[in-house]
Specification:
Carbamate kinase, 43% helix, 10 helices, 285 residues, single chain, eight-stranded mixed sheet, globular
């Protein structure tokens, strides 16, 4: 097994120094889900990446999903999961389950893992401090919400105290209704409200491909205008369309750059932020 000498380790740190200086003190929002959340080895690496970023002064905000865990819990309770256009139909009983799984099990497990890795983290949901204010998307989907406003104050307070905010994507309205919010949508709105330097959306694919059957056709960088053209040409299609729309929305709200990142790549976050290689598709204005 190949090992690094102390001199080689030192050289790696020196090479990363410009990137470290670039991001130190900046806010980076990471949407975490998909295979990187299910695969235990990848989960450990993602948490290590996040803790390392915190140690070098990056203000990381972790926004997480938990769809597979919700589906599994519903099945154990004898309730079928129903989807429309990729969104979970959410009646009152389902939104209670979503709240239990996301704000409870998943959120606190991630906080605990970050702490074990040496980080400082606190878990909150979009309901805390009216962080994510929402309204019903449409009656057919039930308590699936669309974001109307983000209150960044609770996140900023935690960042100021040196914590990694770990946010489950639940929203609420002034009447007390709770809504299940799409993770990418919530992350984009949060990143915009924070004026984040970067938004990273972790996925189960290489990024945006010119040819979906050819991994070598990865588009590593594009502008909003290029993304719109690729949508019109049908290159960006299916489930990638709403993801790209979230990227565009975040940039229009002031986020500098958004990365659709391949979460299956070990230490992909560090590769993206601290090296010149990257690990997905970057979209900018």
């Amino acid at each position: 097994m190949e090992t690094f000498t102390n001199a080689q380790r030192a050289e790696v740190l020196v090479q990363a120094m410009p990137n470290i200086q670039h991001y130190t003190g900046s806010i980076v929002v990471i949407k975490y889900g998909g295979n990187a959340m299910i695969n235990e080895e990848l989960k450990q690496q993602v948490m290590e990446d996040i803790v390392l970023l915190q140690l070098i002064g990056v203000k990381v905000v972790l926004v997480h999903g938990g769809g597979p865990e919700i589906t599994e819990t519903m099945a154990r309770m004898g309730k079928e999961s129903v989807f429309q256009n990729g969104l979970r139909v959410t009646d009152r009983e389902t939104v209670d389950i979503v709240q239990m799984v996301l704000a409870g099990k998943v959120n606190k497990s991630l906080v605990n893992l970050l702490e074990v890795k040496g980080g400082n983290a606190i878990g909150i949901s979009g309901m805390d401090g009216q962080l994510i204010q929402a309204k019903m998307k449409n009656e057919q989907l039930g308590y699936v919400g669309t974001v109307t406003k983000v209150n960044p104050r609770p996140i900023l307070d935690l960042l100021e105290k040196g914590y990694i905010p770990v946010i489950s994507t639940l929203g609420c309205d002034k009447q007390g209704n709770i809504y299940n919010i799409n993770g990418d949508t919530a992350a984009a709105a949060i990143a915009g409200a924070l004026g984040a330097r970067r938004l990273i959306l972790m996925t189960d694919i290489d990024g945006i491909l010119r040819d979906r059957d050819d991994p070598e056709s990865l588009i590593t960088m594009m502008t909003i205008d290029e993304a719109r053209k690729l949508e019109g040409d049908g290159v960006i299609s299916g489930g990638m369309i709403p993801k790209v729309e979230c990227c565009i929305s975040a940039i229009e709200q002031g986020v500098k750059k958004v990365i659709i990142l391949d979460g299956r790549v070990p230490h992909a976050i560090l590769m993206e932020l601290l090296t010149d290689q990257g690990a997905g598709t970057m979209i900018q204005g």
